Amino acid sequence: MMPSTDFFEYQSRSRVFYDRILVGYHDEALRLVERLLNDAETDANGCIVADTIHPKKVRFMGYQDRAYRFVFYVRNRRSPPAGEVVRHRCNNRRCINPDHLVAGTQLENIEDDRDFRANGVDFALLLRG
Ligand SMILES: [Zn+2]
């Protein structure tokens, strides 16, 4: 599947946003990450989820992104390289547990979905990191 033009535009806006955070706003961003993690509930699988139906969004410095992406990039002190997406090892897109998030490609994301449908998630494996 070819990523759409929208995807590339979103990616470059996203990269500019995280670059700005890294240069001058990382402490504030980390405080927001801590607040997001504290305000959410931990479920039986160790997933940290907000009380929302869809992935929670977060607003910072006038830019909005999904909370799991914000948590991942701020905590890892990086901005997304072209083509990168944040994957959920737990297959719960509402989850913001940093231990359940990993960088990958769109193709891997699609393969994850297929794999989860076939095999489910081994949460015991996730705990060991
Ligand atoms: Zn999770």
From TrEMBL:
Keyword Lipoprotein: no
Keywords: Endonuclease, Hydrolase, Nuclease
Domain HNH nuclease: 81-109
Any GO MF annotation of the entry: endonuclease activity
Domain of life the protein comes from: Bacteria
Protein name, per record: HNH endonuclease
Annotated organism of origin: Litoreibacter albidus
